[in-house]
Amino acid sequence: MAATELYYAHGIAQVGLDKILQQAELTKTTFYNHFESKDELVREVLNGHAVRILSQIQEGVAARTHDDPRHVMLSVFDVVEEFYSGTSENSCLFISAAITSPGPQDPTNAAAMSGRQEVRGLLLRLAREAGVENVEAFAEQFGLIFDGACILRQIDRNPQAMALGRRLAAMLLDAHASQD
User: Fold this and answer.
1) Domain CATH for 107
2) How crowded is the C-beta side of 18, counted as CA atoms within 13 Å?
3) What residue stretches are annotated with the HTH tetR-type domain (predicted)?
4) Is the pTM of this model over 0.70?
5) Residue 13 within any structural domain of the chain
């Protein structure tokens, strides 16, 4: 989809409707037959991104069969790095949308937060499977490390960001390990 490619390449806020229509070779009439506004298109793109990234993370994590569920939890960083390395997409659309939206009540921000919550739900499930104590607090802290690694990867184009995030998350896992 032209809009998705443009949003990844230039950011949501920097891509106007005219550029999308030009890239997709569409008229405004055709566009408005499918979408009420550019905001609706952005929400559709974000919803599609949520489905795609969540599926890729789940499949990537599942492919890393390992006896240690803690290793599986940490593999989230590996999966996301593989995603970034295997594509021209160097940014997280959720983060891009959230930081450029006018505020929390904005529908674009709501769509971005919804997608991020789905990823957080996966992290929560993996944390439970890893047997960490205080799962809610752990998932919030893990999410902060994960988001920070994604932002560092996006802003600095730092290819080591996910590896650094993985190391920090491993220390967090050790700190939250169940005392069986």
Assistant:
1) 1.10.357
2) 0
3) 1-53
4) yes
5) no
